[in-house]
Amino acid sequence: MSSPKPNADGHLRVVLAVTPSPDASCHILGSGKRGTVTKRDLRSDDDSGECTCKAEASLDDGPAQLVESDVTNGCVCPAFREHDCVASLDGFEDGTLIVSVAVPDREELTSVVAELRERGATVKLRRIDSSAVGSDRRVLRLDADGITEKQREAVQVAADAGYYETPREADLSELADQLGVSRSAVSQRLTAVETKLVEELVQAEKNGWPGPQPASVGDR
After folding, report:
1. Where along the chain do its domains lie?
2. Which end of the chain is less congested by CB atoms within 10 angstroms, N or C?
């Protein structure tokens, strides 16, 4: 994966939070708690078949680091090379890689996610947007009736604190301190809202929601 960020017209664009298997021993995640990736390169040796990953990681709380390691079976980056997509590793935080991906359609996205999970990774959808050249961009307003007040409060605090920025400007511990609850409670509330958003989006498409257009949660 390498820069620039995916921005292909007519493609589905998503931001994924990918947590590799511990067996992957990701050297980028091992470089620090949180940061951005400014350079990344995967090189294969045709004779040995071995693949090496080189990257430059800029830490939020320290200097940039050059890291290099052999690619193992649990590494997630090679998965993107197996599919029709353009991927950019934007950053990392708390053991999770933040990846922007452009794919031609939802079927290819499903295949990419399946490939990542086959490698032992946990994958969460952080943002999704679809667009095409010359198309009108419209907002899909999703039903938020099933979201509780505590969940709404957690999402508002997270948004204000920059939790949904790339890279994130706040982590779960910081949100927990602001809300006066445990880290796991914050995680559960945010996951519930994110799950609701995705379920509503899928249902909207089943009901014939016209694309391409971006998806967001409307105010209620």
Report:
1. 12-130, 140-216
2. C
Q: In sequence order, which residues have a C-beta less than 8 Å from that of residue 138 and are 6 or more positions away? A: 210, 213, 214
Mean pLDDT of the chain: 75
Q: Measured in whole angstroms, how far is the alpha carbon of residue 114 from the centre of its chain? A: 14
Q: Is 96 helix (H, G, I), strand (E, B) or coil?
A: strand
State pLDDT tens for residues 73-119: 778 888 888 888 888 888 888 889 888 888 888 888 889 999 999 98
* SS3 at position 51: strand
More confident residue, 124 or 209: 124
pTM over the 0.85 mark? no
| pLDDT, position 37 | 78
d(CA 194, CA 28): 26
Q: What backbone torsions phi and psi does residue 172 show, to the nearest 5 degrees?
A: -65, -35
The kind and range of the H/E element at 134 are none
Tokens 């991906």, located at residue: 101
Q: Is the dihedral of CA 28, 29, 30, 31 positive or negative?
A: positive
Q: Write out the CATH class of domain 140-216.
A: mainly alpha
Secondary element (H or E) of residue 88: strand 86-93
CA distances in angstroms from 155 to 63, 130, 146, 151, 193, listed in the order given? 31, 23, 14, 6, 8
Burial of 12 (0-12, 13-18, 19+ CB in 10 A): buried
Determine how β-strand 86-93 pairs with β-strand 140-141: unpaired
